[in-house]
């Protein structure tokens, strides 16, 4: 055959070689522009040459046959070596007739180089991730600077934070020539920090010392190259906390991938720094609790499961005369009188069953042998999994109050002599005392007037005792009074007290049955514990808030990294394809080429639109803030979903077996509907074609947690092969026309965002079972 005339039509401007090839591989026509690749020209594809004659064109011949067979576009690749270098080519094969094709040969050497660069970039990221994944805290930061030094081939890598005064940079990790060195401080003025923050990414190829002559590092070393990225906490992007940078003694010739690598790991480093800060706050909170434990004027101590003392408060030691070494390691029973030991043994079964006891009258032996009468209270502390941690015990010294009771019983014999003494003790008692008969207040002491913000005892005398009890506490207060009259024994509890001015204080009150002016009466002794209760609530709330915030930060950081990787990967391909089509159109403005280009641009744009919609769904799920919960009934939610997919159910001849042992759940409605919709439609979509779909749904409660399972008899999944990718975005495992690989990704994100888990059991050809763990039902309900 002779070459095609280069002055005809499209061929006169297309520089890529174009071949017309029949089904046997014979070249019917060949166009090579004079400026075409010399390596292709040397192949001499004119004169009825057959591409089968060239061993390296075997893949091209296969693409020709496949194109004629299917009448669809194909592509193939080959390489040629010439003058000591290797050139890579892509062959685009299009059907031209029932038994021949048109093939365009395009050089893709630069494209291959770009792919190799991306592989190198991925390998660098993977190496850093693998080397740092098992570390946390400052150890993680040290590993990160080491691995960044290796990956970026830097001589000096550091992570710096701004100090509280905003004028110094404090390093938290420094790696110099492959080794960790001590942390130092630098002045911000004269450093590259402000340039890094201004530009978000700052790079100097050479002359670093000349640009920042006053920077302290330049006083000891000559550095030429520099790259740096600012650090931000996740919720404070407007305010930098420091920066991460790399220095080079040699000029920096190329910084390929450097910016992306530093951006990725600056986010991870900032998250770890924030986690360290929150951990420090938690430790400070624990220290404050310990200080409260030791310094509160109450007899606090803790025991292990065997009743051996493992902690004791300073106030306990001060008031009992013991040293800490006298108490730690000994059984708590050792410090009781023999009679009280018997009482404690009787009380023990109820304590073990209930996990607490309150106001048990016991006698405690001090270091000097004195007997201290106490009211004993204890509670068992367990962790979030219900495992035993310790028993916290509190002793309230009631020796004085017991003495008062004894004095009152003797008052009939010494009324006049003891009246003044009792009144003095009554008025000067460090606790408030109220005496009432049949619910009417008869007398109060000075401390009561002070605690209740009154002006005199006449603000109380003659009034109903319950009028000073907060409505929330009236039930327990009345129960205490009834119990005192019934058992003739003292009773203690905590309650809210209404003051004369309308304010509310929290008190610990102990009621005792006495004889007052010849009438059976109740004496209430109380003291203000508002500060202590508020401190306890504040510590509990802060600990819970810090724990939840730390978990959310870790999860959001992981989701952010995963989303960034997915977005960059899924958007790159269609954009690259459109750029290639634009180049073809620029090279050939003919109507045929424009039609070909616009057709493929349309396909690419539609694919890009679908990808953006899917990524938007993922973002909406990952960062959804409006998670309003309500009581939902599984049957009602399932019925709504089944009514919306009647056609799918009919086509699949689907049968449903439902067993909702847990009929309802406290959960966001849109999430539960989405979870059931995705899992049920998946079960129908991936059924086996030779039998009808059987779908089993079950909900149940176990150990305070809620569960839901959806089981089918469909195609199943090879978990050994695909298990780690099952919930990934755009991951599909069956050739189904509607499969997009988005539903399971969103389902997992919804469940995990509310503290739950999803797992799967499946065998290929045997069906699939998804199990949703909604988490602790009590916690779910209190989130409302």
UniProtKB/TrEMBL annotation:
A Pfam family of this chain: HATPase_c
Catalyzed chemical reaction(s): ATP + protein L-histidine = ADP + protein N-phospho-L-histidine
Keywords for this protein: Coiled coil, Kinase, Phosphoprotein, Transferase
Source organism superkingdom: Bacteria
EC number: 2.7.13.3
UniProt cross-references to InterPro entries, sorted A to Z: GAF-like_dom_sf, HATPase_C_sf, HATPase_dom, His_kinase_dom, HisK_dim/P_sf, PAC, PAS, PAS-assoc_C
The PAC domain, residue ranges: 358-410
GO molecular function, one term: phosphorelay sensor kinase activity
Domain PAS: 285-355
Domain Histidine kinase residues, every copy: 566-778
Class in the EC hierarchy, top level: transferase
CDD domains per UniProt: PAS
Chain segments annotated as coiled-coil in the UniProt record: 268-295
Protein name: histidine kinase
UniProt-listed GO biological process terms: regulation of DNA-templated transcription
